[in-house]
Amino acid sequence: MGKNISRFVCNSCGQVSTKWLGKCPGCSSWNTMVEESYQKKPVSRNTKIEAIPLSSISDQDIFRLSTGISELDRVLGGGIVPGSVVLLGGDPGIGKSTLLLQVANFIAVDGKTVIYLSGEESLKQIRLRSLRLNIHNDNIYLLNEQDIDLLDEYIKEINPELVIVDSIQTVYSPEISSIPGSVSQLRECTARITNIAKSNDKAFFLVGHVTKDGVLAGPRVLEHMVDVVVYFEGEKNYSFRLLRGVKNRFGSTDEIGLMEMSGQGLVEVLDPSYVFLSSSLPNSNGTAITASFEGSRPLLIEVQALVAMSGPGYPRRMASGIDQNRLALIIAVLEKKTGYNLSASDVYLKVTGGVFLKDPSVDLGIAAAIISSYREKTLPADMVFMGELSLTGQIRSVPFLDIRLKEVEKMGYKKVVIPGSTYRNRGYSTGLEVLEVNTIEEFIDLIMEG
Ligand code: TYD
Ligand code: MG
Question: Residue 100: nearest ligand to its CA?
Answer without folding.
Answer: 1
